[in-house]
Specification:
The protein is α/β, with parallel strands linked by helices. Helices cover about 40% and strands about 25% of the residues. Helix 4 links the parallel strand 11 and strand 12. Bound molecules: adenosine-5'-triphosphate and magnesium ion.
Length: about 300
């Protein structure tokens, strides 16, 4: 069973506007509310693929209930620790004419040391019988980034592969625990290494550096410029698929789902990359975060290309 762990659960409220005018009332063309949070997104996408997973983490309030309801729609098993406050409601602003998308995140979960201990215990229990762990996102206020170091180290000692996706300061803390795979986007990679990452070759060098330092294989996504996968034996460049873009939120999380699916079924990682990037393109086509349709994934799958990198 794939186990996903989302300490900072959330819902995305995506607002589509034509233009952004400061200080004015803007009329939205449409709005969509959906699941968000990297590992829960992966569970949701796995559910659409017909693959079972168990979602763990912290949840609270009506937003927390909404998270559970979205996951239930895709038959994801859930066992969240109930904490104080509210699961987050993030606002995604999608500006049609500007061609940009900005997310305003919040921090509304209230987590005590007892809650942290309860999630650690639930995580340890779930490792028995787990094929892999998908872990990441930010942490609720007051939870030390070292929480990620400890969880990852523990899973790896039990021989369970970990796919980890987060931003700073959590990414560095998680890397110290020795995850099997990381999936930074350009900004996350650049913040982790403290230097700008402009070109594909710079991203490749950065990924190599992280692999040498921490042993993790890096799948680096570069938005509309495709992705690099630095697997232990081989590296690939994966060009983007030409699809109509509705909203890119959650596209990276589809890559987590694809990798987890391959590990769970014992298939080559290359198959996981193909599935993940087909799902990423399917997510891009839909307005809701992490929303995608299996029929699109199946149609796009044969179009995903893994090109040797550096090119021969
Ligand atoms: N505009 C786009 N057109 C086509 N494909 C895209 C586009 N943006 C992203 N993708 C696909 O999705 C993959 C992941 O995207 P991205 O790098 O934006 O992930 P991310 O920043 O982790 O996203 P998120 O955190 O919202 O899930 C890309 O490597 C690419 O294959
Ligand atoms: Mg991401």
């Amino acid at each position: 069973m794939i186990v996903t762990v989302t300490p900072n659960t959330c819902i995305d409220y995506t607002v589509f506007v034509d233009d952004w005018v400061v200080g004015k009332t803007l009329r939205a063309n449409s709005v969509v509310q959906g699941i968000a949070g990297k590992p829960t997104d992966a569970s949701y996408i796995l559910g659409e693929m017909g693959i079972q997973s168990l979602a763990l983490g912290f949840k609270a309030g009506t937003t927390g209930e909404a998270v559970e309801q979205f996951l239930a729609q895709k038959h994801v098993a859930t066992d969240f620790i109930t904490v104080g406050g509210q699961s987050r409601l993030n606002v995604v602003i999608h500006c049609e004419n500007g061609g940009w998308e900005t997310t305003v995140t919040t921090s509304t979960l209230v987590v005590s040391d007892e809650h942290v201990a309860a999630l650690e215990n639930r995580f340890r229990e779930a490792l028995t019988g787990a094929s892999c762990i998908v872990l990441g996102g930010t942490l609720p206020q007051g939870v030390s980034p070292k929480f990620y170091t400890a969880l990852i180290r523990y899973a790896r000692r039990q021989g369970v592969p970990v796919i980890f996706d987060s931003s700073e300061p959590y990414l560095s803390a998680g890397l110290a625990g020795g995850p099997t795979y990381i999936k930074p986007n350009r900004d996350e990679l650049s913040q982790c290494l403290g230097r700008p990452i402009s070109s594909r070759s710079e991203a490749f060098r950065a990924g190599k550096e992280l692999t040498e330092r921490y042993g993790a294989s890096a799948i680096i996504t570069l938005g509309a410029e495709g992705a690099l996968a630095l697997l232990p034996e081989k590296s690939y460049f994966i060009p983007v698929l030409d699809v109509p873009v509705a909203s890119t939120a959650g596209a990276g999380d589809a890559v987590l789902a694809g990798l987890a699916a391959a590990i769970d079924s014992g298939n080559p990682l290359e198959d996981g990359l193909r599935l993940g990037f087909a799902a990423a393109a399917a997510v891009v086509m839909m307005p809701g975060t992490a929303e995608c349709r299996m029929e699109d994934i199946e149609r796009l799958l044969p179009r995903v290309e893994l090109r040797d990198y550096p090119p021969k």
